[in-house]
Structure formats: C-alpha cells, structure tokens
C-alpha cells in the first residue's frame, strides 16, 4: 500500500476513534488523528528506501538499521518449518500486532512521564511523517492549525489531556498500516508469534478477489478517493456543517 494511502486510512481511523477515547474537542481530535496518520507510516521504517527511513537523515536511518537487524535476528530464531527462507528484515517485526502494542505502551509511559512536552513531540513527529507522504501542504495547514489552537484554546492544557491516550493513537496507526498491507497481494504477518499452518510469521491476506496490488488501479481510483472524502467528513462538525450549508432554509409563517 502506498504511503499516502496509509496516512489517509490512519487519519480516518484516528478521527473515528477520537470520541471513543475521550478526545472531545476539535483540537484534541485533530492532534489524535494526526498522530494516527503519522504512525500509520512508521512500520515501513524497516526498509532503507522508505520515505520514513529518510525523514530525519541519519537519525531515522539508524532506527531503520536497528529495526531491520532486530527483526532479522528475531526471525532467525523464531521462524517455523514452513516460513520463507528470506532474511525477515522487511515486513516482519514492525508489521505485527505485538510491535503496535509495544510501541503504544512505550508511548503511553513516555507521555505520562514527560507530560505535554513529550505529547507535543510525538504529535510533531507524526505530522512530519504524514507530511512526507501527503505533501508539504500539510505542514502549512498544520502550522495554521497550531496558531488557531493557540488563539482559541489553552494548547498546553489540552495536550496534557492527551497524555496516555496518545499511546492508543500510535498503536492504532501501526495496526492500520498492517491491516492495509494485509489487503495487498503480499499479505502481512501481524499475528506473530501465533503459529498458523507451520508458520510463525504467517502472512494474513483476504481471498484473492479482495486483494489489490500496491499503487495500481483499485488503490488509486477507489481506495484513495473514498478515504479522501472520509478524511474530511470525519472531522468533528464537518458533516453537520455540510448538511446545514446545503439544507433549504426554513420558511416561517408570515415570513
């Protein structure tokens, strides 16, 4: 799945989930969704040529190197008798539910320990990831959003309320990435280490007629347009606003 699609699906998942975890204000919902969108790209840090791996130069490059080697070492000692003979460095450790939960738990601990400063750092990193996939225009929009937030709310107080919740956004973003990859022809081993059919890294995928190839027609002309529309409609207040905009004015008696 393309990076832009991962980011869009992560954004939509974040907006849909935000009310359920208590991110009640528009500011909090957008910060939560931006985090989910960004971290829906993070699992691809296990590939040296991925945009996420090049985002911060040597910093993300080092993380990529560590993740690839850790994944390969884990694959070597855990692969089942029917697992592939590959190295296990790409689409393995970072593409598992275990990784998503672990990174989410680490984020929860970190934000609770560091407060709103750490929350702001996580959201900023997620925005950089999402902007790298969707385009620099997102940074301009985000910059305007920060100014708007600062003028209409106490940003520090609202960010503090996201402490702990942001771990959920990180985990959901990683999970959405895995779910998206599972719909492609390559599949995704996100149930590791549950053994299935002799494979510890069993690649889950739907029936062949429901799969699509990355970057081809189904993704470009169906998946992306649908989630682009949802990305707008799921913003808090967007749907009632659109309905009110196109609704016929009510005529009162004698008016």
UniProtKB/TrEMBL annotation:
<feature type="transmembrane region" description="Helical">
    <location>
        <begin position="137"/>
        <end position="156"/>
    </location>
</feature>
<feature type="transmembrane region" description="Helical">
    <location>
        <begin position="221"/>
        <end position="239"/>
    </location>
</feature>
<dbReference type="GO" id="GO:0016787">
    <property type="term" value="F:hydrolase activity"/>
</dbReference>
<keyword id="KW-0472">Membrane</keyword>
<feature type="transmembrane region" description="Helical">
    <location>
        <begin position="162"/>
        <end position="180"/>
    </location>
</feature>
<feature type="transmembrane region" description="Helical">
    <location>
        <begin position="113"/>
        <end position="130"/>
    </location>
</feature>
<keyword id="KW-0812">Transmembrane</keyword>
<dbReference type="Pfam" id="PF04307">
    <property type="entry name" value="YdjM"/>
</dbReference>
<dbReference type="InterPro" id="IPR007404">
    <property type="entry name" value="YdjM-like"/>
</dbReference>
<protein>
    <submittedName>
        <fullName>Metal-dependent hydrolase</fullName>
    </submittedName>
</protein>
<keyword id="KW-0378">Hydrolase</keyword>
<keyword id="KW-1133">Transmembrane helix</keyword>
């Amino acid at each position: 799945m393309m990076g832009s699609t991962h980011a869009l699906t992560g954004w939509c998942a974040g907006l849909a989930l935000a009310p359920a975890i208590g991110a009640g204000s528009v500011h909090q919902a957008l910060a939560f969704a931006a985090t989910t969108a960004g971290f829906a790209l993070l699992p691809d840090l296990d590939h040296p040529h991925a945009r996420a791996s090049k985002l911060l130069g040597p910093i993300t490059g080092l993380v990529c190197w560590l993740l690839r080697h850790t994944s390969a070492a884990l694959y070597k000692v855990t692969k089942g008798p029917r697992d592939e003979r590959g190295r296990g460095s790409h689409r393995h450790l970072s593409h598992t539910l275990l990784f998503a939960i672990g990174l989410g738990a680490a984020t929860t601990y970190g934000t609770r320990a560091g407060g709103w400063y750490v929350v702001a750092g996580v959201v900023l990193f997620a925005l950089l990831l999402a902007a790298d996939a969707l385009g620099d225009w997102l940074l301009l929009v985000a910059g305007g959003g920060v100014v708007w937030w600062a003028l209409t709310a106490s940003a520090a107080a609202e960010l503090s309320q996201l402490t702990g919740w942001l771990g959920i956004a990180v985990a959901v973003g990683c999970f959405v990435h895995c779910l998206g990859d599972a719909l492609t022809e390559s599949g995704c081993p996100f149930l590791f280490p549950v053994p299935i059919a002799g494979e510890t890294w069993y690649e889950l995928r739907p029936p062949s007629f429901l799969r699509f190839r990355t970057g081809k027609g189904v993704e470009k002309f169906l998946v992306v347009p649908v989630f682009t529309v949802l990305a707008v409609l799921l913003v808090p207040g967007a749907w009632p606003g659109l309905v009110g905009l196109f609704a016929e004015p009510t005529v009162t008696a004698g008016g």
